[in-house]
Every structure is written in C-alpha cells, then in structure tokens.
Write a structure and sequence with these properties.
The protein is an alpha+beta fold. The chain has a domain at 26-57. The chain has one helix and four strands. It starts with 9 loop residues before the first helix and ends in an 8-residue tail after the last strand. The structure holds zinc ion. Zinc ion is lined by residues 31, 33-34, 36, 44, 46-47, 49. Zinc ion (ZN) is lined by residues 31, 33-34, 36, 44, 46-47, 49.
Length: 62
Amino acid sequence: MAVPKRKTSKSKTASRKAQNTKKPIARASSCSQCGAPAMPHHVCTSCGYYNGRQVLSVSSEE
Ligand SMILES: [Zn+2]
C-alpha cells in the first residue's frame, strides 16, 4: 500500500480547505418589472414576473 512520504503541512492543508468556503450567491441581474435583485433565468420572487409576464401570483402584490 502506498504511504505518503511527508506529513501534509498545516499551510498546505489550510490552502486546500480554503477552496471549500461558501461563496456568496451572484446577484448580477435585477427584475425588469420591479427592479428587485433576482437570479438570472428565474421567476422574480418579489413580483412573480418572468420574461415580461406574470407567471406567479404573489400574495403581497394587490
Ligand atoms: Zn420583480
């Protein structure tokens, strides 16, 4: 069985585990209807519009 020749240093371990941090969600686009930040290619959660038409009925909007 293969055995590691050297103990992995703390620096090497830490720099590897730095890749596992949770990155913030990119909010690059905003809703064209209400201007709220929205995920691209997703229905707007604040007004329920997608691609210029209402596809969801949001209870807060009346
Ligand atoms: Zn919207």
